[in-house]
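Work through what follows:
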Amino acid sequence: MIDSEDFYNKVDEITNRFEIKTYKFRPYYSGSNIDFFEKNIFSNEEDILNQSYDMKTIYGNMKLNRNFYGKLFIDNFGKISISPNSESFGTISDLDLFIRKLSTSNTMWFKTRNGIEPCKSCLYADLCQPISDYELYMKKNDLCNIASKQSGMN
């Protein structure tokens, strides 16, 4: 779990020194490291335009959220949600009912950027990564500053 560039550099040095080949860095939002996220996690126009896209990915981004689709989170008390950072919508005793409801209603499984502010008016809404748990936790719908730049151009 990486929450700063200093910590990233230390971990990177250790993995290189001990020739550790298999590891995974995961950004950690502590509530006070927004600068780290803005610099290293947030997308910008260059990031988006330098990726290659196929129609399947773009269409998928328009219809469902790949980060949440098909996933359920069940906490220690049996409460069901899509992620630890989303609201509970029932308990484990109601699981069958909720799975049927999830697949037909407007839930996090189907929450896309083109349905939320400020992304729905952004040119790149269908090209960006799906809404993530970071955004739910941070209570920020976009991990970029593109939409605010576009609205400033009007």
Remarks:
- The mean pLDDT is 90.
